[in-house]
Structures are given as structure tokens and as C-alpha cells.
Design brief:
The longest helix has 29 residues. The chain contains 7 helices and no strands. The N and C termini lie far apart (79 Å). 4% of the residues are buried. The protein is extended, with a radius of gyration of 22 Å. The protein has a domain of 61 residues. It is mainly α. Helix 2 packs antiparallel against helix 3.
Length: 168
Amino acid sequence: MAVDITSVLNQWNTIGVFSYVLPFLLIFAVTYGILSKIKVFEDNNAVNAIIAVAVGLLALQLDFVSTFFMEIFPRFGMGLAVLLVFVILFGFFLNDQTDKQKWKDYAWIGIVIAVAVILWSVSAWQWGGDNFGIGYWLETNFWALVIGVLIVVAIYFITKKSATPGKP
């Protein structure tokens, strides 16, 4: 009997690898890494590991984390693919080391693409796993919040440009 990757992935999905094991490992690794980096408990790795395991298991208590990861990571992968295509296309126009400055000059394009992917991901998210009503409120007021944030960012950049040293 031949085993293909589709049947293996479907079996993993059936036993909960994608819904529980991988989210737990991700939450554990991030929590453990943060605790190790900030050295709250000095170099006591056992305490860091126990806290990371507890946080990882408590996060999986409800299906909210699994649902969130199911929604965000496929869109994140698509956003990375779009960014990769942009980098490849932009790379056609770079021909030597001095052109690396162009990357710095056009960094704002990457930021705009990243913000667009985040907005697209959040606006397309089905807020079914939300027990507090935050999802409904955010869904109904999403574009008003986006416009408000854009206005605040525009005001910041306008005031930053006009505030030059030595001039009022």
C-alpha cells in the first residue's frame, strides 16, 4: 500500500496535530524563549519550562487558539508569498552592491504590503470563537478604526516633519 503525503496530513489532522500539538509547541516555544530572554527567574530553566507548559496547555483549553491559528497562518503564508514575489520582481532591478540603498529607499512599500495583509487577514476573519463580543464590535467598527488609525499616523508624520530643530 502506497502512502502519500495527503493521507499522512489527513491522519495528523484527524488525531489533532494541527489543532493541538503544533499550537501548543508554538505557544510553549515563544513563552519559554521570552522567559529565558528576560531572565525573570535568573537561569532557572525548570521554572521557565513549567510556566511555558502551563501557558501552552491553558491556551488550548478552549478552541479559540486553534481557530485563530487556523485563520491567521494560511493568510500569513499567502502574505509571505506576495512579499516574496515582490522581492523577486524588485531584485530584477538591482544589479550591484550600491543598489542596496534602493532597498532602504523603498522600505515603505514593504510596510504598506505588510499592513495591507494584516488588514485583509483581520477583516476576513470569521469571529465565531469570540465569547466576549469583542469580535462583533470589531467587525462592525473595523473600517472606522482603520481610518482613525490612518488619521493618527498622518498627524504624527505631519507634525514630525514640521518640527525641525531650531524652528517653531
